[in-house]
Every structure is written in C-alpha cells, then in structure tokens.
Amino acid sequence: MARVAARLSGNGEQSTHPVDEVLPLPKLALYGFQHVLAFYAGAVIVPIIVGNALKLSPEQLVYLINADLFTCGIASIIQAWGIGRVGARLPLIQGVTFTAVSPMIAIGLGAGGGTAALLVIYGAVITAGLATFAFAWLPARAFRAVMRLFPPVVTGTVITVLGIVLIPVGLNDAAGGLGSPDFGAPRHFAYAGGTMLFILVLMKIGKPFLSSISILLGLVGGTLVAFLLGDAKFGDVGDSGWIGVTTPFHFGVPKFEWFPIVLMLIVMLITMVETTGDTYAVGEIVEKDIDSETVARALRADGAATALGGVLNSFPYVAFAENVGLVRMTKVKSRFVVVAAGVFMIVLGLLPKAAAIVAAVPHGVLGGAATVMFAMVALAGIQTLGKVELKEEKNALIVGVSLAFALLPATVPAFFTTHMDADLASLLNSGVTLGATSAIVLNLVFNGLAKDEAHGRAALPAEAAAAVAVAVPAQAAAPVAGPGPGRSTVEDGPASGGAAAGGPVEDGGPAGGAPAGGGGGSAR
C-alpha cells in the first residue's frame, strides 16, 4: 500500500504532505508532460549513442529508443508510486544512466558489435540489476552502516558534482548538439538564450501556476519559434509507425559473461551513489526527511528497473538529476506528477509517431531549458553543503579536491582516451565517478565513518508523536512534521514494538504511542 504522508497543521489537524498530494487530472497531465519534455533528450541519447557505436540498423535503433521510453515509464511509476517496500515514493524520474555508456560500448565492441553485442550487454545488465536489488535488502542495521559513508559533506559534494557535470551537457545542446554539422552556430545559442530568457521572465512574474509550467512553456514556445523560422523539422513524424510494441528479449536470449558482469556491477555501484545523492537532494527540495529506509527503497527501484531494462531491451536505470532540478524550479512536489509522466512515457514508447513529435524539439531550445535545470541541481548540492562546517579545513579539502577530480574527464579527455587502457578508461572517464569516489574516500580518510546514520532525523516532540499515533492508522504510516523545523518520518516496513518518536513504524505494524520524550534519530 502506498504510504500516505501527513503532517500537523498549526491547529493540530492532520494535513497531506505536498509529496503525497494528488493534484487535479489536468494539472497532473500538464506537469507530467513537462517532466517528459525536460527529460526526453537525456532519455533517448543513451540508446542512440550505444546503438550507433554498435552499428545497429535504423529500425533496430528506433526499437531501442521505444523500448527505453517504455521501460522508463514503468521504472518511474515504480519509484514514485511505490510497490510495497520498493520505490522511494518521491518525485524522482528514472532514466538510463550516462555512467553506463562507455562500459556498454566497450562490452559491445568486445563482443563484435551488432545485436550479438546487445545480448552480452543485457546479460550483464540483468545480473547487475538483480545484485543491486538484493543489496538494497540488506538487514536494516547493515544498510544503515553502509549509509554512514554518506554524511552531508559527501552527498552535498556528489549532488554539486552532478549539477556541474551536467551543465556542459546542457551547453552542448545549446550549441546545437555535440557532433552536429553546425555545432556552435549563433542561431542555436539564440534559441537557447531566448528559451532561457522566457523561462526566467515567467519565474520573475511570480505567478505560481506560470512558474510551475515555465519549462514546458519555454520548450513549446521555443519550438514554435524555431518551426516558424524553419529550424524545427517534423518530417520524421510521417515516417514513423503508429504502434511499436516492446517485447521481452526482442533481440534474443541474453548471454552471461563474467567480465561484462563485473564491469556492470561497478557501474551500478556508481549509480547507487548518484541515486543516493538525488534522493537526498529531492528530499531537501520537497522538505521531507530522508532516512536509510527511503534510500534503500530508491535503490531497490533502481535494481528492479535495471533488471527489467535488460529483459525489455533497455539499459541500467538511475534517478535522473535533471528532473530534480525541475522539481526545484517549479516547486511542484507531488510524486503523482511523476506517475503521470511515467504514463506519458509508456504511451510514447508504444507510439513512435508521438515520440517523433517530442523528439522534434530543437537542440538549442532544449539546451536553454536544460542549462537552467542543471544549474539548479548544483545549487541543491551547495545548499546541502551549507549544513557542513566548511571552516574546518578537512571538509573544505574533501569538497574542493572532489570537484577538481570531477572536472578532469571534461578538461583533459586525452588522459583517458589516449593514455589509459580502454577497459579502465570506460570505467573512470566520468566526472561523477571520480568526484563521488574522491568524496567518499577523502571523507573516510579525514572524518572516518559517521557516528550514526549519515543523515539523521530530528526528534519529534512527545506531544506530536502522541498525536501521530492517534491520527495516522498503522496501514497508512506517514511522515509527520511537528511544530518547529524538525521533521520525523514514520515508515512502512516491519515494526519492532513501539517506535520511539521519529523512529520507524511499519506498514501493518502497531501504531502505538511513542515513549514520552523519545528521540528516534540524531538531529540534523
């Protein structure tokens, strides 16, 4: 059963947390479609790059894109809606991770390219997905011990790195798309600048509804202008089919080979750090406390989606930082907006013509919107670092050195492409990989493991805890905000006796009162 979040209003009455608010259908559709437009280019670029590198036919490439969109939709619904203890139940869009691109190309070329290479890739993807899913089911104590690796100085650095690494992706789109014949042409930057200016004007006007759909309006308006000027092409729409159904193991039975599996397991370790950072980032934005169980649920959704991706002819999945920036900009916190986006993606995956229409958004227009969103992701990381005592030299070194490592692949690409073994380069040629690894290792060297769960929860006052015990049934255990800045989460999952204030109360478990004055977690 989906968790229903509640909080206490000033007069003590229960109210729905914005994350769990079900908006009217027109708004759900509008906001959901905005997420799809903001996410679309990032969603399809991975199958395009991998498919071209493996020399697939145009028909096979179209099939990969449709399969990716279809699986993205299912994965996003699992993450946002939640199935049992799988899915964070937060507004997190799932998309194919960029981290896997180089390793998958290396695996595919090693297998000879073509559809035969896809079978080896899918064997590794399925295995890595199942391993990630299993890891996220570690006993609570063991998983909390793992989460001690991610105090705010680490997660803040990782989120900041995600934003900084993504900004050049947006700028490349603003320049017309990397590899395009007229890359860097002024007209692309004109579309990007015009789209960005339009979005900023809508945000400046300050009308809540206009602000919440500013990205969507910017993309639609920019595309319309480009179409009138002859730079938005819809010719592919007529050439696309009406229906394209994704079937399991379309290209054949996967092959399971040990080296590709090991490489993909390493990729999934990196994506786990990404998803952890994105989960904490969206928690900050929607003002909802994130604990180890929430992160575990997000990672279970990653693992399940990745294994499903291997079955449905797609690739490894991760929570998309791009859409975290969109949540921050629009301030639309409902997870059901992401569910609506998931439905749209499933439809697009079944309707190649509809997907072709969305794909017609010019690179320059998309780049203008994406750059703003990616910058907001970096800002979310900076805000998390605001909780860290950066006056301490060791914390400042962790952040600074990690940011430097993250910029290495983009600044000195020849180090990886020319002077490093291809297999090793396929793993290390990523700013997220280097920045996240640096932050974790340096934090262990300077600070050691966190003393408690890395991101603790503020204790809930005894009076609020007692009110929660009465107001929230066991079958709908929920996060509750007491009077004051602290929040405490009441979670799904097996309960063990009475929960301390702010501690977990499980789905189907007793909702009994907390001990007076009990503190269920360390203060943030």
Q: Can you tell me about this structure?
A:
The chain has 524 residues and is mainly α. Helices cover 62% and strands 3% of the residues. The chain has helices at residues 25-53, 58-81, 101-110, 114-135, 140-147, 152-174, 186-205, 208-212, 214-228, 235-239, 258-286, 292-311, 321-330, 335-350, 352-359, 363-385, 393-411, 414-417, 422-428, 431-446, 462-471, and strands spanning 6-8, 14-16, 94-96, 317-319, 480-481, 487-488. The strands form three sheets. A two-stranded antiparallel sheet has the order 1-2. The protein has a two-stranded antiparallel sheet with strand order 3-4. Helix 4 (114-135) packs antiparallel against helix 12 (292-311). The protein starts with 5 loop residues before the first strand and ends in a 36-residue tail after the last strand. The relative contact order is 0.19.
Overall, the morphology is globular
Number of strands: 6
Order of the strands making up the biggest sheet: 1-2
User: How many helices in DSSP terms?
Assistant: 21
Evaluate the radius of gyration: 23 Å
Termini Cα gap:
29 Å
Average pLDDT: 75
Q: Segments where pLDDT lies below 50 for 5+ residues?
A: 1-6, 456-524
How much helix, percentage-wise, in residues? 55-70%
User: What is the N-to-C order of secondary-structure elements (H for helix, E for strand)?
Assistant: EEHHEHHHHHHHHHHEHHHHHHHHHEE
Structural class: mainly alpha
- Taken as a percent bin, the fraction of beta residues is under 5%
Main beta-sheet annotation: 2 strands, antiparallel
Multimeric organization: single chain
